[in-house]
Amino acid sequence: MGALNTANTHTAPDSPQATAVRYLTEHGYEQTTTSSLADAIGMSRSTFFRRFGSKEDVVFADHDFALSQLQEQLDASDLSASATIAQGTLEVSRVLTRDPVTARMRSQLLRSTPLLRERELVITHRYERMFQRYLARVAAPGTPDWGSIAVAAAVVAVHNAALRRWMKFGDNHAFEELERELTDLIGRFAPWFGGERGASRVVVAAFDVGASPDDVLGRISEQLR
Prior knowledge:
Layout lengths: L15 H12 L6 H7 L4 H7 L3 H5 L1 H16 L4 H17 L2 H13 L1 H25 L6 H25 L3 H15 L25 H12 L1
């Protein structure tokens, strides 16, 4: 799977959502009415409600799309757990950063608006539950129930850390590192989620009942060569 390239994944700068996020950032979330926001993006109030639902929903429209795409990937994937998780999470990153300017404005808006931060926590839990259901489905027999819960939470935490690096430093390599980090994370929970134990060998050695310990060790050593 190729590394994510955010440099060439911009949406149109005048898309309705981008315009809405910019307007909310510049004028304040609490101070903006739905009617003024609809006017700013060139929609009637009724069209705005049909398309986005509310001014809160327009801020998180990318997340709604990313969650929908992620669910489809998790349902359809026949790859290993680590590859499926990495692929799905990188696609979420691609959606959320495809318009870097809007992504950063949305982050600024969330930091300054407690109501939106609460909604962000709800969405974070949606990602966790989605990963948890997938991991529980593919888990090996005997995997403890908390295994899928813990790994799902870790996946979201690792992704959010990479996203913060990208937001803060503009580091496109953050997502290349994310792929490696997620693969390593899932691998550390082998064999619960499709990992493989280290190779092992069974050695069968025949020896006389009266053989000395040195003779036994010698026969075993021969088989291991």
